[in-house]
Amino acid sequence: MNFQNLITFLKELQKNNNKEWMDANRKWYKEVRDDYIAWLDIMNEKLAAIDDGYYDTPGKKGINRINNNLMFHPNKPIYKDHFGAGFDKRPNTGDFYVEVGIERSMFAGGLWRPDPKRLRSIRDAIDYDGEELKKMLNKKSFKAMFGGLYEDEKLTNAPKGFSNDHPHIDLLRNKTFAVATSFSTKKVLQDDFEAYLTAVYKEMLPFRRYLNKAVTV
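RESULT FIELD:
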């Protein structure tokens, strides 16, 4: 995968974030996108080899659109400043997200503001065995890699059906159950990038499996 070509393309796109430039450079975009999809296919196989429960996600199914959704975010530029994709994208569960950007790149996973039904399922799981989730979050290597749950809006009081003195009230008040780690895009150009991706995937896997079990069982 020629990540340097991808980054160069993104830099030029951000200088000329308009449809006219994209149309004039459609061949370059297709070259970069096809190269990225081929790399996603390779990593899809590598992750499947280390995860028995992996959901096959070929590159064409995992890659995200480069267009921003202007219907909900009209003030954003037309095109994103990164290429994003998901691995292990089982329907209605939290995948493993990879983003390669201009200056900053990231890995993330879990569930971002899940719908009420899935959010209730996660809270019920925490009510049942929240200590298991806390052990994952407090694991030394996990905290070193992700810090903790992704900071997002939280309820002021206990969610409906739970008391404010619940032993896991700090978790129950969350609306988002996800973790992320960001790093300089220079890391993407290093020889050990794929090994790093695999290590992050492994570290995050028990956390993602806990959430996905909660929303599917």
